Amino acid sequence: MVNSRKSGRAPVAASCRAKFECGIKSKILPDTAVARVARGELPQMTGTWNHAKNRHDRHPLEEVASPMPAKRDISDDLSTAALRPCTAPLGPWAGYVFAARPVFAATSAYQHIEVVDLPAFGALGRAYRLDGRFMASLADAHICHECMVHPLLLAHGNAQRVLVLGGGDGGSAREALRHPSVREVVVAELDAQVPATILQYMPTLADGAFDDPRTTLVIGDARDLVDAALARAEAFDAVIFDLTDADGEAATLHGAPFFAKLRALLGPRGAIALQLGAPWFEADQVARMLDALRSVFKFVQPMNTYVPLYGTLWALAFASDSLDVRGSDATVATQALLSRESLRHYSPARRAALFDIPPELMAVFGDR
Fold it and tell me: How is the quaternary structure described (predicted)?
């Protein structure tokens, strides 16, 4: 659930003071290629890098930035550090704490990035945070990624082009690439430091997604990419929001004006999938986003599931003018997917439960 695709924040000044998050002293990135991209010294908006092709491709957004960095460009391994309390907000009035072992921390031009080990999750306890908020762990990142991607693509039946907004950890791209109909996945990630960090410290999260020749990683603002695609009359079958929380600097990407742009970007039977937040602790945000979706799209269908890393029930939604994701019979397609892929969360048995909104939360989710 990543963004890195925050926008509008000025680059971090060289005189920025060190901060402490989870007991990790942050730093301004060293003078490496990825650091220069992150600080805005190299063109970041337009770079694409395809590892499988091992070359830069000229993207329609014109200029090309530096390639993704080699692993040696990331340093400051703090994996031997002692356990420390690691707090995270849960809506405006609550929070939660994990015991965490610091592994890596850096401040890019856009945000503070941390990698920590969480003993509570055992061997899969490695997780990362952006600006103090947990994004994903190896233990449960698949929950949101599978729930956002598979119901939509299975209902569509022949999705070929998928756009991931944010998604610098590669998890959403990984799930989309499980579908043989998919010919292209474009990942629009603002902060080059996010995929660089994930490929170094949590490579199984992407599980080779950035090495797949169908994947193109675009380092740039998602809004600019969408505007450029609309100007070229492009169309996508699915748009997956894998952004930072909607109450932060990605808020403008979660409102009706941007949803209307995505509606124009969708092809026949196209749909979007996005995360809404925690309905128990962010009720106003969840309701506001659903209202915005319903003002733009004909079909708006929320779902909910528990995400351990977030410490609560989590809400997601699908929206489309022509695709009824919840009402589509994708039984045969789902069985075909499960016969060749090992999913960890989504299944036909869980599908009905995912779309079943608890009665006590109906006031938050509104008209279904």
Answer: Homodimer or homotetramer.
Residue at 70 is within a domain? no
The pLDDT of residue 80 is 58
Question: Other CB atoms closer than 10 Å to residue 219's CB: what's the count?
Answer: 32
Instruction: Note whether 18 and 9 are within 8 A (CB).
Output: no
Instruction: Write out pLDDT tens, residues 60-95.
Output: 322 223 333 333 333 344 455 689 999 888 888 899
Asked whether residue 44 is marked as a ligand-binding residue, the answer is no
Position 238: which residue type? A
169 marked ligand binding residue: yes
In contact, 14 and 111? CB cutoff 8 Å: no
- 189 known ligand binder: yes
- State yes or no: is 242 an active-site residue: yes
Residue 277, classed as helix, strand or coil, is strand
Amino acid type, 299:
F
Is 222 found in the same domain as 171?
A: yes
Give the model's pLDDT for residue 247: 67
Considering the domain architecture, whether residues 247 and 279 belong to the same structural domain is answered as yes
Kindly report the pTM of this predicted structure: 0.80
- 200 and 229 inside one domain: yes
Both tokens of residue 93? 């009035």
- Under 8 Å between Cβ of 317 and 302: yes
Per residue, the 3-state secondary structure of 136-164, as one string, reads EECCCHHHHHHHHHHHHHHHHCCCCEEEE
Phi, psi dihedrals of residue 251, rounded to the nearest 5°: -60, -35
Secondary structure E strands in 118-233: 126-130, 133-137, 161-166, 184-189, 215-219
Which one from 117, 191, 212, 242 is the annotated catalytic residue? Answer: 242
Query: Per DSSP, what are the bridge partners of residue 104?
Result: 115
The answer to whether 68 touches 34, Cβ cutoff 8 Å, is: yes
Residue ranges of E strands in 206-265: 215-219, 236-242
Structural domain for 131, as ranges: 84-137
| Low-confidence residues of the chain: pLDDT under 50 | 1-78
Residue 237 is assigned to a ligand binding site: no
